[in-house]
Amino acid sequence: MKYTPFYEIHKELGARLIDFGEWKMPVQYTGILEEHRTVRTAVGLFDVSHMGEVTARGRDAAAYVQHLITNDISRCAVGQALYTAMCRPHGGIVDDLIVYRRGEDDFLFCVNAANTAKDFEWMTEVAGPFDVVVENRSEAFAQLALQGPRAESVLQTLVPADLSGVAFYHFTETAVAGVPALVSRTGYTGEDGFEIYFDPGQARTVWEAVMDAGADAGIRPVGLGARDTLRLEMKFALYGNDIDETTTPLEAGLGWVVKLDAGDFVGKDALVSQKAAGLTRRLIGFELLARGVARHGYRALDPDGNPIGEVTSGAFSPSLEKPIGMAYLKKGFWKPGSQFLVEIRKKRVPAVVVKTPFYKPPARS
Fold this sequence. Notes:
Number of helices: 8
Number of domains: 3
Distance between the termini: 42 Å
Mean pLDDT: 97
Shape: globular
CATH class of the largest domain: Alpha Beta
Largest sheet: 6 strands, mixed
Strand order of the largest sheet: 11-12-13-10-4-14
Order of helices and strands: EHEEHEEHEEEHEEHEEEHEHHEEEEEE
CATH superfamily of the largest domain: Probable tRNA modification gtpase trme, domain 1
Number of strands: 20
Radius of gyration: 21 Å
Helix content: 10-25%
């Protein structure tokens, strides 16, 4: 079992801790609904130090990154971040990740926690022909996510850099409460906010400084439970649930991070072929039309009871006060308004395909 540098703080706060993959993580502190609503209306602080960090540096670093990922790294300037996928040759998703360009030939990848070892092995394999040094630097970083409409005003009191000048999916290398940090305007909630990378030896200093700075703004620590409902309301994919090596970015609705003209990246030929042939299944969002919660793996059926796909994620939406979910459905059931059935404990519950994201946060002023 692995422990983040905030583990003792979570225990002191009375968090309910669970085994999350290899990690002991807080699923909630005061309650998922309360924590979810705090992020939507004020500001919440998440420990996301379980995420993995990998660096790529060297003369061929940019060419290497372009070969590794589906998005176009040439569009990413120094100080900018890029959401992308990396694929196997057959087009299946190895992981979805964020790439930070710290220099022309200096990149930081943030990868999913459960995938860190697998990702690093794959990244090292792909690096073979390139003049690049790829390192797993996960032990060198603590990571916090400060999310919510009051995130900027709270964090600004601790940071000398002008955060209003840090655009969405951009970052600055500055200090938080005197601790050197990379601060990026990114997140997994749909709200405005920041992800903060820094030395794990300074974990308590930064945590307590952020919590103190946010006291008047109504800050709360937030666990994995609310993180999941927040991301689901935005239809953000969760690796292992909604995407994996059996799904392609095109099927998952991530075609916008696949730039087929960007270069000869791994998996390009398979994705070109799939696009030309047409998709046979696609990840859609749905609402249940009766009580119930659709869980990962539940069968989706057409109105006559024939299998048409499978649920990947589902939960009760605290913001919309209704049950929502995602599912891969076969062609013919993708249009909003299309109705189908979800088999929940042998009961067939009606559902309807809806436009996503399910929830749209107010525009940032």
